[in-house]
């Protein structure tokens, strides 16, 4: 999985959307969470987070060059220079929606769908804390220093 301390994996994600000023990464997983379905491809990268408290309902994380977030409302930004928005599709009986992190050259969408109940707010907070946004500029410096390679562009 793309850990925030693994510049080689982060470089793969960065190359999938060369314009993105941030790349999503796993900052840390709470007990009961796991990351799955890492899929880097030209034009975007996706992966999923799965909780044992709501099996079969992963949080889908997608990095793309852009996204449509017009229906969403502003939400506290998750990193400097990032605009974050949240759109709830449903609150009951399922707690579903999409969080958007929008930044120069890219967008990360987080699609979630949990059973509405005593755990849904905690689950939301846990996956939000699990996924970080790593600055492309820092990644460029890390790769040069640690591996002697340049990140394109």
Provide structural commentary.
This protein has three helices and nine strands; from the N terminus they run αββββββββαβα. It has a single domain, classed as 3-Layer(aba) Sandwich (Protein Transport Mog1p, Chain A). Strand 3 and strand 4 form a beta hairpin. With 153 residues, the protein is an alpha+beta fold. It has a seven-stranded antiparallel beta sheet with strand order 2-3-4-8-7-6-5, covered by helices on one side. The two termini are 23 Å apart.
How do the helices and strands line up, and which of them pair or pack?
Blueprint: H1 7-16, E1 22-26, E2 33-41, E3 44-51, E4 59-64, E5 73-75, E6 83-90, E7 94-103, E8 106-115, H2 120-130, E9 131-135, H3 136-147
Antiparallel strand pairs: 1-9, 2-3, 3-4, 4-8, 5-6, 6-7, 7-8
Helix pairs in contact: 1-3
Share of residues in helices: 10-25%
Principal-axes geometry comes out as globular
* N-C termini distance: 23 Å
Specify Rg, calculated over alpha carbons.
15 Å
In short:
This protein is of the alpha+beta class. The protein has helices spanning 7-16, 120-130, 136-147; strands spanning 22-26, 33-41, 44-51, 59-64, 73-75, 83-90, 94-103, 106-115, 131-135.
Question: Any key phrases for this structure?
Answer:
two-stranded antiparallel ribbon, 153 residues, 9 strands, 3 helices, globular, 22% helix, Protein Transport Mog1p, Chain A
């Amino acid at each position: 999985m793309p850990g925030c301390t693994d510049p080689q994996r982060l470089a793969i994600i960065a190359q999938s959307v060369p314009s993105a000023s941030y790349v999503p990464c796993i900052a840390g997983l709470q007990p009961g969470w796991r990351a799955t379905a890492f899929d880097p491809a030209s034009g975007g990268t996706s992966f999923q987070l799965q909780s044992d408290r709501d099996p079969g309902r992963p949080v889908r994380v997608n990095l793309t060059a852009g996204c449509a977030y017009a229906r969403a409302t502003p939400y506290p930004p998750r990193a400097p220079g990032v605009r974050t928005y949240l759109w709830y599709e449903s609150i009951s009986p399922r707690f579903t929606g999409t969080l958007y992190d929008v930044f120069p050259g890219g967008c990360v969408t987080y699609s979630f769908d949990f059973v509405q109940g005593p755990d849904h707010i905690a689950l939301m907070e846990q996956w939000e804390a699990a996924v970080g946004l790593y600055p492309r500029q820092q990644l460029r410096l890390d790769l040069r220093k640690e591996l002697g390679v340049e990140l394109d562009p």
